[in-house]
Amino acid sequence: MSRWEAQRGAPLCSNENVLPDKRSKTEKQYKNTDDYRERGIGTAVLFDGTLAAGASSYTVYQGGIEIEIDTKEEHRRRGLARACAARLILECLDRGLYPAWDAHNKASLALALKLGYHIDKEYEAFEICKQDS
Asked: Full-prediction pTM beyond 0.85?
């Protein structure tokens, strides 16, 4: 039988159970794991001891964080991202931090709206990608 487990304060960087596509991106925002543990904040859901979904501070600034959320594809559409995000938001509010949300796609926007965020305004954003030679 499979087991679900919630993990509060889970470091979402420099950990072998982290979602591989998000680990390097988040790691770049912190000097090292100790820096993340000191300044960062996160929550996760484990499935049979392996990370299934998580919400974390992508970046930290005075008085707040920028939220980053991901769920492994095989665990999507089960409300895990919503549960992780809600827990992270509540923890931020308990600590007096503003949990900033920047929706990059329609799924992120829909989740933000479910969690009580409101659209301030749309803006154009660009992503710079390195091309392999």
From this structure: no
Dist. CA 18–CA 35, nearest whole Å? 17
Q: Name residue 66's amino acid.
A: E
Instruction: Return the sign of the alpha-carbon dihedral for residues 34, 20, 41, 47.
Output: negative
Supply 4's token pair. Answer: 């679900």
And the tokens for 95? Answer: 């600590």
For residue 44, with 0-12 CB atoms within 10 Å meaning exposed, 13-18 middle and 19 or more buried, which class applies?
buried
pLDDT 10s per residue in the chain (133 long)? 445 555 555 444 333 344 444 444 556 788 888 888 888 899 999 888 888 999 999 989 999 999 999 999 999 999 999 999 999 999 999 999 999 999 888 899 999 999 999 988 888 878 788 887 6
User: What pairing do the DSSP bridges indicate for beta strands 42-47 and 4-8?
Assistant: antiparallel
Q: Which of 89, 45, 81, 86 lies closest to 64 in space, CA to CA?
A: 89
